[in-house]
Write a structure and sequence with these properties.
Elements lengths: L31 H34 L8 H19 L3 H7 L8 E4 L5 E4 L25 H23 L5 H12 L4 H6 L26 E2 L7 E2 L13 E6 L4 E11 L4 E6 L4 E5 H7 L2 E3 L3
Antiparallel strand pairs: 1-2, 3-6, 4-9, 5-6, 5-9, 6-7, 7-8
Helix pairs in contact: 2-4, 2-5
């Protein structure tokens, strides 16, 4: 599920009632005009306290989110990129219906954020000017109902790609040329969100899908599959590649038939980023987890 945005949001400008000295001298407090002005001022004060309270709550969340150090090395910046990208990919694929619903054109200018914990959120932009980090495209919700859904998602994906690169190279501004090139190559190994959303990227490139399943024994029962993953699941991320992944149940997507197959993870090699999984039919397969994560083809079932 999307997390709460952890930055301050801009308060709407409030009309303030100002008067020069002596304006209200010798004026009957019971007059209709004075009563209306008093009501408006009280309403304005309540609104202002409400907005300030909202900012205070968001700032407390922000402080807990930003306890970690700013990424400075190539490895740390790349990890930040991967997590934010995973969140955006989740919004544009697995959680697309929820994302579409939250990007309501009736709301104010909204942005799609990829968070550093691998989640996503739709929210107002940061209040700081200039912002602490480069901001995503503003007002994505306004174009939603004026376009075909797939075209709108492609547009959001393009802007999300450019935002990911902007954040990564904002952090990488102090790297030397060799390190910047290494960062770019690490990032460029992934297909863009636009390529995934529009279907322009195919696993394995021109050679087609490199994942090959061993032919199933005719005596085995068919593997369990569904045309969509469980809504309670979440996409596998690079942070998940630990020994704790062993024994977890997941759903694995196959582009050939566009089905999600129920599997159990039998073993994990965090160093090589590979895993052996077993289908409900008993069939065993070894997976390249980097490829699976890049494509968004595995959904972990919530324990």
């Amino acid at each position: 599920m999307p997390s709460s945005r952890r930055v301050r949001t801009p308060a709407r400008k409030l009309w303030r009632l100002e008067a020069s000295p002596g304006t209200f001298q010798n004026v009957d407090p019971a007059s209709p005009k004075i009563r209306v002005l008093a009501i408006l001022r009280r309403a304005s004060d309540v609104r202002l306290r409400s907005v300030e309270g909202s900012h205070s709550e968001r700032e407390s969340k922000s402080s807990s989110c930003r306890m970690g150090d700013t990424p400075r090395s190539v490895e740390a910046i790349y990890e930040d990129f991967e997590l934010r990208r995973n969140g955006l990919l989740q919004a544009l694929t697995h959680d697309v219906d929820e994302f579409y619903k939250q990007a309501d054109p009736e709301r104010e200018n909204l942005c799609l954020y990829g968070e550093t914990d691998g989640s996503w959120t739709v929210d107002l932009p940061a209040e700081e000017v200039p912002p602490e980090l480069p901001e995503p495209c503003l007002g994505i919700n306004f174009a939603r109902d004026g376009m075909q859904k797939r075209d709108w998602l492609a547009l959001v994906a393009v802007h999300s790609d450019s935002w990911l690169y902007a954040v990564a190279f904002y952090y990488g501004a102090k790297l030397d040329p060799a390190s910047r090139l290494r960062l770019f190559r690490s990032i460029n190994q992934h297909p863009t969100l636009y390529e995934i959303v529009t279907g322009k990227h195919r696993p394995g490139g021109k050679e087609g899908n490199k994942r090959k399943r061993v032919d199933m024994d005719p005596g085995l029962a068919p593997a369990k599959a569904a045309d969509a993953p469980l809504p309670t699941g979440r996409l596998l991320t690079f942070h998940d590649i630990t020994p704790a992944l062993k024994g977890r149940q997941a759903e694995l997507f196959w582009p050939d038939d566009k089905m999600w197959y129920l599997v159990e993870i039998h073993s994990v090699n965090p160093k090589n980023r590979t895993a052996k999984i077993q289908y409900t039919s008993g069939e065993i397969e070894e997976l390249d987890l980097e490829e699976i994560i890049r494509e968004g083809h595995m959904s972990l079932i919530t324990q």
